[in-house]
Amino acid sequence: MTSEKKIIAVGSxxxxxxxxxxxxxxLEQRGFEVVDKGTYTEDSCDYPEFSHAVAExxxxxxxxxxxxxxxxxxxxxxxxNRHPNIRAALCWSKETxxxxxxxxxxxxxVLPGRVPSLDPLEDILAAWLDTPFSNDERHIRRIRKIEx
Length: 148
Known about the structure:
alpha/beta
């Protein structure tokens, strides 16, 4: 992501709330305006409503990108990718995060919230934020085919 002021929409379910709060602080330290789309408590909740809220913010342009988290990340990814022009990438390593940006121009990072340590999630987030889209014609062609 570029150095200009960016708005990032974030959302999680109850399982990932502690991790989301930690990553929101990191995003703010990096100069992002963070828009929290929920959840706000550790009470059991349904992840699709938060996934849809973040995807709608990115889709409409109200946010330039998004971050979603649930226990595995899978449910959030499934729901977000139902939206046009959303490329939500579930990433489990710095490499997958960087490639999701470089090759696929992912606009929502999805992370698993039930992990033993937040350090790897911080590294994954940094790799995703710091990697630009390559603008290579073959990747542009492939993204167009995804959007069809």
